[in-house]
């Protein structure tokens, strides 16, 4: 049987986080009642003229810079002509010959293997409206133009991906990057980050590409992998049974667990692009590009590397804590506050704060797009950990205090005070408690004297129980050994 | 027609993309006219443009840009009233089937 190699290229449409549409002042906010966010421009009423949104152009340039693209000083909007009810003008304003961003790249890693994926181009275009099929009266499609005209970037990859795992890694990395630079909210469910995949297979060793199928509308990372794997298997089946793969558009049906041909799109591939006479070229001056480059926040990969080097995190910890831009920010703020309050060194501080956030804080965090909700302020976490650092409480009690902080919204010091959780480091008080327990446990004392020194754990437990966990474990151990040896 | 600039097939293809239904007579007429127009444009080939920068727009200007500030939208009831049919706040069009399995 012939062995085949998949060849995959991805086209990602990402909505840019501007407040208004690409060519008019209608808000882009999600969730308004249908057609409330429309005007003569985005409804294509006669005589209306498009004016590009400066912010959208800037966000697109920043996306290009983050992906190491060559930014074009002159780019041109073009008309992509086709008929569909979600496109009121009969064309989509996109870019064709002269896109805003030329070639760039994104580095991914699969199973520890690094790989550079080429970016062919990133162009700016307007989103189409939303068609709602057969709800209400089943004989009609209802069109909602609120989304129509929303600014998108289309990020086209080179056909460099060779497996569904690579495709998924590329998409996750890309989404991560766009979220960290604030260009896109990464919300697949709301459709603000969408992916089409061009999939073909060729016999291993063959240079020439096979005929590709275009998979449309893949709206989750899980579906991407399933849809691509299914499509690869389908094409192998076709070739092995002596057939030929036809170039077509297919869609992933989660319900049926397979890709399905979309015949309705087949004739649409002749778009007759031409420069839009309504829109002169967009000029982005070299100084402007440099200003936008300087304004780019630290990219997630650089952040992770820095954390490992300066804040003592492992690669795994850095990955978890940079899982969302707001979590990364929270970690950095908490670490800084902890350093300020406790005087700890950055490396030790990063590790301690990072561990605590992962173990205790993250399970209380909810994210929605670029927003994240935290149970307590990062400075409160720092204050709590500073109490551990100065010996006021131990690490175990810190968890109890944190639970109260989450529940009541009160600061750690107040809780420690009110609930009497401060560690007993007063040796006199510990000694009294230890003596009492040793008196009450002659059998265990005898065991200890017989050389079964691990019975000391029993005594520690008893002391901690008697002091409700508030005794300093180190002090308890010292006192125990001393008093036992004196007996 | 000797060596036409545009074939009858091309005319019919473009007509189809533009959702135009042409009779045989109309298609032939379009072919003749488009052929004449394209022939006329061919006159440009006589000019030496090797020193001219390609242009994408007839007016030598940069696109003016708009600040990202929301403006007032149209009144939905007014715009929907212009449409032949509407339903549930949306423009109603004949059912579009996205997927044929």
Query: Strand order, biggest sheet of chain A?
Result: 5-6-9-1-10-11-12-13
CATH topology of the domain at 8-45 in chain B: Histone, subunit A
Shape of chain B: flat
Q: How does the helix and strand content of chain A classify structurally?
A: alpha+beta
Q: In terms of structural class, how would the helical and strand content of chain B be classed?
A: mainly alpha
CATH class of the domain at 8-45 in chain B: Mainly Alpha
What distance separates the N and C termini of chain A? 81 Å
Mean pLDDT of chain A: 92
Instruction: Report the CATH superfamily of the domain at 8-45 in chain B.
Output: Glu-tRNAGln amidotransferase C subunit, N-terminal domain
Q: Which segments of chain B are poorly predicted (pLDDT under 50) over 5 or more consecutive residues?
A: none
Q: Treating each run of at least 4 consecutive H or I residues as one helix, how many helices of chain B?
A: 3
Q: Give the biggest beta sheet of chain A.
A: 8 strands, mixed
Number of strands of chain B: 2
Give Rg of chain B in angstroms: 23 Å
**DSSP helix fraction of chain A:** 25-40%
Helix content of chain B: 25-40%
Could you name the key traits of this structure?
heterodimer; A: 487 residues; Arc Repressor Mutant, subunit A; 15 helices; elongated; B: 101 residues; mainly alpha; Histone, subunit A; two-stranded antiparallel ribbon
Description:
- The complex is a heterodimer of chains A (487) and B (101).
- Chain A is an alpha+beta fold and 487 residues long.
- An eight-stranded mixed beta sheet of chain A has the order 5-6-9-1-10-11-12-13. A three-stranded antiparallel beta sheet of chain A has the order 4-3-14, with no helix packed on it. A two-stranded antiparallel ribbon of chain A has the order 2-15.
- The model of chain A has no long low-confidence stretch (mean pLDDT 92).
- Chain A contains 15 helices and 17 strands.
- In chain A, 40% of the residues are buried.
- The N and C termini of chain A lie far apart (81 Å).
- Helix content of chain A is 39%, strand content 20%.
- In chain A, β16 (366-368) and β17 (371-373) form a beta hairpin.
- Chain A folds into three domains: 4-288, no CATH class; 298-418, no CATH class; 427-486, Arc Repressor Mutant, subunit A.
- Chain A has helices at 54-66, 164-180, 221-240, 286-294, 300-310, 315-321, 325-342, 346-361, 378-389, 395-408, 412-418, 427-440, 442-449, 456-466, 473-486; strands spanning 4-15, 74-75, 77-81, 91-95, 104-110, 113-126, 130-133, 140-144, 151-157, 193-203, 213-218, 248-253, 258-261, 274-275, 282-283, 366-368, 371-373.
- The longest helix of chain A has 20 residues, at 221-240.
- With 101 residues, chain B is mostly helical.
- Chain B has a domain at 8-45: Histone, subunit A (Orthogonal Bundle), CATH 1.10.20.60.
- In chain B, β1 (86-87) and β2 (90-94) form a beta hairpin.
- The longest helix of chain B is centred in the first third of the chain and has 18 residues, at 24-41.
- The chains are: A alpha+beta (487), B mainly alpha (101).
- Chains A and B meet through α1, β7, β8 and β15 of A and α1, α3 and β2 of B.
